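Thread: Newbie trying to understand structure tokens

Hi all, I'm a second-year student working on a class project, and my supervisor (Dr. K.) asked me to get a predicted structure for one chain before our next meeting. I've only ever worked with sequences, so writing a 3D structure as a token string is new to me. If someone could post the tokens and maybe explain what I'm looking at, I'd be very grateful. Here's the chain:
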Amino acid sequence: MSQEFNMFRYYLFIVVFCWGVTLSQETQAQTPTNAKANPQTNELHALHDTKDLQKIRAFIDEYNAEHAEESHTVGWTFAFAQGGTLNKKQSTKQVQSFGVRDVNTREAINGNTVFRIASVSKVFVSVAVQQLLEQQLVALDNNISEYLSDFSPLDDMAFPITLRNLLTHTAGFEDKFYGDSARSKDQTQSLDEHLAEALPKQIHQPGEIIRYSNYGNALAALVVEKVSGLAFHQYVQQHILTPAGMVNSGYILTEKLKNLMATGYRHKDGELQARPYTWVHRYPPTSMLTTGNDMSRFIAMLLGGGMGENGRVLNPESVQQMFSTQFTHDEDIPGMALGWMEFQRYGNQALFHDGATPGFVAELVIIPEENAGYFIAANQKGSGLPGDLRYDFLEAFFDQPFIKKNNTDEFDSLVPELPLDQYAGKYQNTRRNHSSYEAFAVLMSNEVDIQPSDSGNGLLHWNREYLPYTPHKFVHAESGHKLVFKVKNNMVQYLTLDWGGAPRAYKKLDFWQYRNTQTVILAVIFNLSLLTVIIALGMKVKKRKRVLTEVTANALLVVFFVLLAAWSMTLDTVLIRLAEIDTLKVLLAMPIVALLILVMHIIQRKFHWLRLLAMTPVVAALLWLQQYNLLGWWFY
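---
Reply by user tm_fold:
Sure, no problem. This is what the structure looks like when written as tokens:
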């Protein structure tokens, strides 16, 4: 096999890796969450009359029959509750369950089967803070340092933050996952200890944009701990779960909950794989364990103005405050309530939170104006059923298509505030890391592509034309979906959307930051390294030159990029959260070793054009790695 073919094969491997991992999420990044139409919708009866819960039961039974198998869902539960009015305790509740909690024992899921609900846990942090607000022990807009006087990491914050910032994800924190979990309870850190060690960098001034942050929500839970004098899991048990009547729920995996718990799975390579249970150090935002029956009680408590089965959890005014808008990027875009995400359909405000963790996925939706809510959980993270059902059930509930129609003609005469080319480009989700090696994950994150439409009247995204309707705002006339741009000094900075998913902001990228651009740069560096090795080996054969150093330095780079690609494509993300990535730590030494070998050799020997050629890809590689914090060992 020729050297030229070998070079092409390695080049192709790297390019396929870079393009594969970056484009694998392209469809998800650019497709509106609710883009697909539900063929069942026109055949369904309205579910407004929930006194007849049989309509809901029939719909969910049919949904399971049609979607569970195709989505490889192992088991799942659906809980629905509807209250009377906000000042009445009465409510109707219904729980349906399907599939098995364990593929080996084949034990069926039921209303008391325990699921991990991941980020849906954040709503319990919100309720806890709301209770302290009722007692006037905290204030939403006070600097949290007033309540965390002994938490010294706050001294290193670039800007002061408030509880309102923390509960609306506007504290400006970067994202971090490395080392946030452990394999056993004995290995876990206390909440304040872990938060002190894992302090993220503040990228934005608080209140500027939404940057979703588990750390920020955990910091709000720490305020609850310090003010109440109780560990957060104890506080929630005593002041939320017990009065709400949630008897099989909690943050701690007790023996009772373990015996009721479903096994979490993932579907990979055509088979189901059980996922390990991990203990999260900053547990409040992500680690609630609960059941369909208990969540129906939780929903009923909220719809009943805060009155639980065993006592009052919140006052009606507190429930209303918690459900009210606290931050939005724009008045036309749903934003954040206190710990809850907003979306609007058919003139009604809906609030939701979703969550995913290894082996589990969950959805919680509250529709205050209908005094209704529902909860969905599955014991398989890859199952799309809960996310699809979040919207499909809304279609059935309101008895009309999820996407409403508008008149296209009313937008045609409007002219955008800026030239369309200034809005065009690629936009990157602001939920990302900046200061540690996790910045590398940006190459595998969502990227939204906006281009001028062929008509020249608007913007094109996912083959849909968005037309201007007010300054810096565009709408897809048929669906009503909007693109809203944040502009400063006539320069586009951010894009926000209203597709019904989590509120978020996307930053406009410069050309050199595009994923495709970075892929080309990486391919050139890799190609140069291979070329240098081939030339050096050729000179050794023909001219008997001693080129061992040049070959070694660049061969190290070639091996490094191949192994980094293989590591990234096969990595189990659980290992990142457990900080069990020794392979990466060894890999990151290779570029530094390559540089040291080459520099020492140049110092000791005379200048030669081959050595200059050999140094070029090494230096380029080091600069490329540095921008993603992969030069050295930046893990915290």
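A couple of things are worth pointing out once you decode it. Residues 1-46, 84-89, 401-406 have pLDDT under 50 and may be disordered. Residues 515-543 form the longest helix (29 residues). Feel free to ask follow-ups in this thread.
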